[in-house]
Amino acid sequence: MPSVLNQHFLQASVTNQEQWEEMLATKGLTVVDVNQQWCGPCRAVVSLLRKIKNELDDDLLHLATAEADIINALEKYRGKCEPTFLFYGGGELVAVLRGANAPMLQKMIVEELAKEKLVLEQGGERKVVQDNGLVNDEIKEEEEAPQQLDNEESITVPASKSYTVAIVKPDAVAHGKANEIIMKIQDAGFEVLAHEERTLTEVEARDFYQHKAAEACFQDLVQFMSSGPSHILVLSQVDGSASVVPAWREFIGPADVEEARREKPESLRAQYGTQPLFNAVHGSEDSDQASRELAFFFPNFRAASATEQDGEEERVERTLALIRPDAARENRGDILAQIHKSGFSVALQREVMLTEEQVRQFYLQHVEEDYFPALLRSMTSGPVLALALARTGAVHHWRSILGPADVNKAKEESPDCLRAQFAVEDGPVNQLHGSASHEEAEREIDFFFPKQRTLAVIKPDATEEHREKILEEIHAGGFSVTQLKETALSREMAEEFYKEHREKPFFGQLVEFMCRGPCMMLVLTKENAVEEWRAMMGPTDPDQAKATSPMSLRARFASDILHNSVHGASNEQHAEEKIRFIFGEICPDAELNRDGETDGTVSAEQQDGSADENTGLSRSQSEEMSDTRHQQHESDAHGSNPNDGPEHSD
């Protein structure tokens, strides 16, 4: 069986305990990027690692990533946001580096590789180190307790330590300046508490900059911020200054690039900005905005507040909010404004037309109540706006501003509450829903935002040259790769795969192209995976992609409408059909083993008949709900037309 490190990728992905043990037995120096499943590997150093790997060209140097969530040996690292790199030689830990410090990482790799070679050539002893993140022995845990406390503080924002959200914008990322900017940030004394590369959707960009909605440049700003990847950072200061917000805003300089060049020529915006909109970096305007932005981008980030007692930490959490059809039609904007004003960020948003069966499933505990028929009529009278709201104490705070469930009682006792303000005249049903508990919130969020699977294909024209970069962007986009294999399609397979195009004039040309070389087939999992992957791909025609989505994969890697680099399913039903064709009947939640195959299978009968434990819906009901959502967005998605070219279903 091939080694887990014997891969074409820059960093091998260690996804289970067996692979971890195999990695430790590999000859040479292995540098492991330890990360959390929710935030993924450290993207700030990928270019540096590629440079080091190419320059050293040494078979004894191995690079890997490992999720603390699933590797038993990394249990002590779980829940920690700070980038951590572990250096292993001969199965023993020889060095540790915390933080995305690129110069130090390069220095340590060169030095530790030289030491490991010396050990292998001359038989000397390795200098083994201990790290509190891997200590399992109780005695050692007691000895290392002070260090552990220090490490916990480094990833938690206490009341005495301020933080701010920084964004390296798409213009700076597109010009390859992200790593350089991040290094300058660290050199200036800022501490990176969390880091994520992410491409905002237009909806996310619109929500994030809602406070600028009245400005003339708002639409241009939204389009720019959703045009390609950004680097999202949570910053504090190493020296523990009273407030990091003014220090960061001073460091980045005025928003107007020309003003920055005149007045603050050493600022980031003066050095990297090109025009007012493309000013390279973003910073929170004040501590309140920093708190809202933190909840928007990092809902699982552990942040302490000044009101906490007994050393307990207050977590940013999510709750489900529903704006029922009448209010969604008449008062959507006003309600969303109140939500933002109350300190919530909208982590997820979706408009859904529910069936009666779906309403009964969602409100199962209310079906026998006298008011249920009126509730059912209300919930099926038009699209419902579903929101996953994030902030500290989200469940309690949302319910407190909603007010009493009874509309009359709300008007009498709490006329300023949302249910009183947005009540429908003579309507017996209130217009807003909120989860009753943390557990209920997660179940309800799963109901409206279930994890989806989609099929992605890296085509022959991109597999050899761009595969690694595309895979990096897939992971950076928050997708989990649950199935992966490289295969060369036979003519029969290609014809069957594209059978819906059999009568089209381009069918033969398409089949011939897909058989020219190996493709990489992937099953991607994420909330709203189908539409998210299609957005990342961009329009079918690369020329159109360059005009409307310049940072999309097709805009950057495709050469023409036939050689357009990547494929994606057009809807969830299409995705499941193609996944079954390529991978057979697989468990939707199956994990990759070391050979890129799943460890379990289920029958078609089991798949089609089983109910989703999170939503209570059967697969057919979930697909119906997903298809309804897809139809609502299909007409304007990605600017593509069914008659534009060979793969309009792509």
CATH hierarchy: architecture of the largest domain: 2-Layer Sandwich
Intertermini distance = 35 Å
Number of strands: 17
Rg measurement, Å: 26 Å
- Helical fraction equals 40-55%
What do the pLDDT scores average to?
78
Summed up, the domain count is: 4
Coarse structural class? alpha+beta
**What is CATH's topology name of the largest domain?**
Alpha-Beta Plaits
Q: Keyphrases for this structure?
A:
disordered C terminus, 17 strands, Glutaredoxin, 650 residues, nucleoside diphosphate kinase activity, Alpha-Beta Plaits, globular, alpha+beta, 4-stranded antiparallel beta sheet
Descriptive notes:
It is a single chain. This protein is α+β, with helices and mostly antiparallel strands and 650 residues long. The protein folds into 4 domains: 12-151, 3-Layer(aba) Sandwich (Glutaredoxin); 164-297, Nucleoside diphosphate kinase-like domain (Alpha-Beta Plaits, 2-Layer Sandwich), CATH 3.30.70; 316-448, Alpha-Beta Plaits (2-Layer Sandwich); 451-639, Nucleoside diphosphate kinase-like domain (Alpha-Beta Plaits, 2-Layer Sandwich). The chain contains 30 helices and 17 strands. A 5-stranded mixed beta sheet has the order 1-3-2-4-5, sandwiched between helices. A 4-stranded antiparallel beta sheet has the order 7-8-6-9. β4 and β5 form a beta hairpin. The chain is globular and about 85 Å long. Residues 135-156, 303-313 and 587-649 have low confidence and may be disordered.
